[in-house]
């Protein structure tokens, strides 16, 4: 094979790779749009009247996740199944965002932490990397850390809306989450930096709870804790 023939073959390989990446980008753009729609919907819970509509918003969000599953099914067909990590960077950010949104919905519904397996079911992808397109552990953890920041914001807005028991429950949840992350030996620099931000979320929520205590509203919250969430 001559040098020119060699480079013609290389150009063919480059073109094929670029075509794959372009097809992936198109699907990722659609996923990002759906994620924005879900986020816009869920952001309504931060408004005063939004607390009464939480079940309805969660139901609508789950309907949007049907679109996400269809889009992810399309994404799976755009590259060879054994090259997940070669192209992973293209969808890493939007997948982390979708994990956060799924985790937020589950928290609003049950005030529990969604498992990686449950997120996989919501998104229609695998948890086990051996089975192809899957939810990477670090992507799952990044999404959960974003949830912590969102709940810190929700704790503040709950007080504004007159819901004094929710910040106490959020505080308990976030402290359990922090304890869980402390069990991990994080090597990923990006994930480690995001985890470092969790302590600020913990502090922010503690300040909300302390403020409720100073104002005597924590007693009211404790009395009403047996009511509806």
Summarize the structure.
The chain is 75% helix and 0% strand. The protein is mostly helical. It is found in: Cytoplasm; Nucleus.
Structural write-up:
Keywords: Cytoplasm, DNA-binding, Endonuclease, Hydrolase, Magnesium, Metal-binding, Nuclease, Nucleus, RNA-binding. Its main location: cytoplasm. It is found in: Cytoplasm; Nucleus. Ring-shaped heterooctamer of six TSN and two TSNAX subunits, DNA/RNA binding occurs inside the ring. GO terms for molecular function: endonuclease activity; hydrolase activity; metal ion binding; RNA binding; sequence-specific DNA binding; single-stranded DNA binding. The protein is mainly alpha-helical. It folds into 2 domains: 1-135, Translin, domain 1 (Methane Monooxygenase Hydroxylase, Chain G, domain 1), CATH 1.20.58; 136-219, Translin, domain 2 (Methane Monooxygenase Hydroxylase, Chain G, domain 1). 75% of the residues lie in helices and 0% in strands. The protein has 9 helices and no strands. The chain has helices at residues 3-42, 54-76, 84-110, 116-123, 137-160, 166-182, 189-196, 198-214, 217-224. Helix 1 (3-42) runs parallel beside helix 3 (84-110), helix 5 runs antiparallel to helix 6 and helix 5 (137-160) runs parallel beside helix 8 (198-214). The longest helix is centred in the N-terminal third of the chain and has 40 residues, at 3-42. The protein starts with a helix and ends in a 5-residue tail after the last helix. The model is unreliable at 223-229 (pLDDT under 50).
């Amino acid at each position: 094979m001559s040098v020119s023939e060699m480079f013609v073959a290389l150009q063919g390989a480059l073109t094929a790779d670029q075509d794959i990446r372009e097809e992936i980008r198109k699907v990722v753009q659609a996923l990002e749009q759906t994620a924005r729609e879900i986020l816009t919907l869920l952001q309504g819970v931060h408004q005063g009247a939004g607390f009464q509509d939480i079940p309805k918003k969660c139901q609508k969000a789950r309907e949007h996740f049907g679109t996400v599953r269809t889009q992810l099914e399309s994404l799976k067909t755009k590259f060879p199944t054994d090259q997940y990590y070669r192209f992973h960077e293209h969808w890493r950010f939007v997948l982390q965002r979708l994990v956060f949104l799924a985790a937020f919905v589950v928290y609003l519904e049950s005030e529990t932490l969604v498992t990686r397996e449950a997120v996989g079911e919501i998104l229609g992808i695998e948890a086990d990397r051996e089975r192809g397109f899957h939810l990477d552990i670090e992507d799952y953890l990044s999404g959960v850390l974003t949830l912590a920041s969102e709940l810190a914001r929700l704790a503040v807005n709950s007080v504004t809306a007159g819901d004094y028991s929710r910040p106490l429950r959020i505080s308990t949840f976030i402290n359990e989450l922090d304890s869980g992350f402390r069990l991990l030996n994080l090597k990923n620099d990006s994930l480690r930096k995001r985890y470092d931000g969790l302590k600020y979320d913990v502090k922010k929520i503690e300040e909300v709870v302390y403020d409720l205590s100073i104002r005597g509203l924590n007693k009211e919250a404790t009395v009403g804790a047996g009511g509806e969430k």
